[in-house]
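re: ur question from earlier - yeah i can do the single chain one, its not a big deal. heres the input i used so u can compare w yours
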Amino acid sequence: MDTPTPPTQSSLQTLSVQDFQRLEAKLDRIEAMLSGPHQMLQDAPHLAATVTNIADEVVSKLAEKQIDVDERARHLLKLIEHLTDPKTLSSLDHFLAHPEQLSQILGALEQVPGTFAMAVNIVDDLIAHLQRKDIDVEQILKQTMQSTKILVEFMQSDQFRALMESSVFSPETVEIIAKMAHALRHTHDEEPGEVGLFGALRQAKDPSVRRTLDFGLRFAKRFGGLLVAPARALTGK
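and the output i got, formated as tokens:
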């Protein structure tokens, strides 16, 4: 690497006044650039003290309004933690990539107050209509709450568990109950009469009556055995 040759006396003599002025201006700019950071370092303690005083004044004013700055700061840090969560950032990125979806959601939210108000008006009209028919809506609501409480308590009982684990809702049981209801309705529609002991014996010759007696006796035997069993025994516990 070549060492730069220092200027000789003859070369210095060839410099004009304008050259010296330009050189002096460059030195002034360099000095100004160097003095900036130095001045900032000298002013740093004063600036820090000023910022501290401003912060203390703000905290004092907030405390006068019964605002807990520490609590607010903790909530702010928690909010920042949630906002910087990868899932949150992913959702934000999705909405930023699909602004039309965000517009649809905001549009739906804007319609919520109107929809809620319309629902309230419908309920008010319904209550007014029931009251015009002398229907005590308040009493109905009380009875509904009481019925709901009883139903919830029953659903938590061993009896309800036994009912659900039995075959009461099986297709076969439902079919039997439907046949019984059909027979009850048609029997009720018939003209009632009187049957004595000998009449009952004569009816026993009817195959349908004998099938009913057989079903009733077999049912009585099984049902009688279950009458002495507690409800929990039916659930297998």
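The radius of gyration is 48 Å. not sure if urs matches, ping me
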